[in-house]
Design a protein that fits this description.
InterPro entries: AAA+_ATPase, ABC_transporter-like_ATP-bd, ABC_transporter-like_CS, FeS-cluster_ATPase_SufC, P-loop_NTPase. It is a single chain. This protein has 331 residues and is α/β, with parallel strands linked by helices. It has one domain: Rossmann fold. Helix content is 34%, strand content 26%. The strands form four sheets. A six-stranded mixed beta sheet has the order 8-11-12-5-13-14, with helices on both faces. It has a four-stranded antiparallel beta sheet with strand order 4-3-6-7. Strands 1-2 form a two-stranded antiparallel sheet. A hairpin with a 5-residue loop joins strand 3 and strand 4. It is globular. The N and C termini lie far apart (43 Å). 45% of the residues are buried. The structure holds adenosine-5'-triphosphate (ATP). The site of adenosine-5'-triphosphate has 11 residues, from helix 3.
Length: 331
């Protein structure tokens, strides 16, 4: 379920200028596969694998210095009241206006990472830092994080019996805007958003997610995101369980929500959604609690084409690529 938001504090960390060499904890391997020579229409295809996701300053491929939205450094987390470490030193930087995707095997820690970012009580951070728009995210409780502009769509959206979708959305919107909005006024605000995600108004009277099909729940998550207009949307497998039409609707709605000022962090196993969104994006691979590799700033269509042509398994089976696939592809 999404968390209600309130006005984000427009506080941005100064963007560091990119150094000429990658930081010590990361190195780039240019993949010597055909896509290295291929240049996309945008003339900027650059495929790279890095061990340890580099920080923005380590990327070194950007000429401009965008505002850093989220900066995760050496993040380690265990399951609460246990010493089972799930996140083992994650590094990730997201600038405003960017789409980032995390792929990887089942159980590699993707959802845990997302949940740790929004302050899920099941996990305890043992090391590292997370700065969101210049503020220490780890010092905030989950509600404060959502107020600061974070939104998370969970893999399995929760049902809220006894609370209508309409009331829930209106309460969340009021909390974000810090002002009451009348049901009529809110309905007018909501209508175009319902149309964007192709949801019928009858879903407004139903209790939040109660009895919704898997696909309807996912659309409802996007509706919440559209209503709350978060700065950074973390979408955990928003594409799972969607039929072809629903996938296209969700992709279209997401594209409609993107502005140069907001960002998306998607967790997915399938490149299809990336294909449909058709925007530039960063693709990261998570393995055993670490972001171990990344494709930097590829146009998504090229990125997915490259992934499929480089790693034969992806041609036939749209599974999450792993670091092993990158290694095979580059040999
Ligand atoms: N609350 C918890 N209690 C026990 N184990 C947990 C808990 N949360 C995560 N784990 C374990 O941590 C590992 C990572 O889980 P996580 O859900 O983050 O993986 P994932 O990469 O999102 O997997 P998938 O692709 O299947 O969704 C798994 O082995 C999981 O069983």
């Amino acid at each position: 379920m999404a968390l209600p938001l309130s006005s984000p504090a427009p506080c941005f960390a100064p963007s560091p200028s990119p150094p000429k060499t990658p930081p010590r904890n990361s190195f780039l391997i240019t993949i010597p596969t055909p896509h290295r020579r291929r240049r996309c229409r945008h003339g900027a295809v650059r495929a790279a694998v890095a061990v340890d996701s580099p920080s923005a300053e380590g990327g070194g491929l950007r000429a401009e210095t965008p505002n850093v939205f989220l900066e995760v450094k050496d993040l380690r987390a265990v399951i609460k009241d246990s010493d089972k470490e799930i996140l083992k030193g994650v590094n990730l930087t997201i600038n405003e206006g960017e789409i980032h995707t995390i792929m990887g095997r089942n159980g590699s820690g993707k959802s845990t990472f997302a949940k740790v970012l929004v302050g899920h009580p099941d996990y305890e951070v043992t090391k590292g830092s997370v700065v969101f728009k210049g503020e220490n995210l780890l010092d905030m409780d989950p509600e404060e994080r959502s107020h600061a502009g974070l939104f998370m769509s969970f893999q399995s959206p929760v049902e809220i019996p006894g609370v209508s979708n309409m009331d829930f959305l209106r309460m969340a919107y009021s909390a974000k805007k810090k002002t009451e909005i009348s049901p009529i006024e809110f309905f007018h605000y909501l209508l175009p958003k319902l149309e964007a995600v192709k949801m019928d108004t009858r879903f407004l009277d139903r209790n939040v997610n109660e009895g919704f099909s898997g696909g309807e729940k996912k659309r409802n998550e996007i509706l919440q995101l559209a209503v709350l207009e978060a700065d950074l949307a973390i979408l955990d497998e928003i594409d799972s369980g969607l039929d072809v039409d629903a996938l296209q609707d969700v992709a279209k709605a997401l594209v409609g929500l993107m502005t140069p000022k907001n960002s998306i962090l998607m967790i997915t196993h399938y490149p299809n959604l990336l294909d449909l969104i058709s925007k530039r994006c960063f693709v990261h691979i998570m393995e055993d609690g670490l972001i171990v590799s990344y494709y930097q700033e590829l146009h998504i269509k090229n990125c997915c084409r490259n992934l499929r042509s480089s790693f034969p398994v992806l041609k036939y089976e749209l599974q999450s690529p792993t670091l092993e696939h990158f290694r095979q592809g580059s040999s």
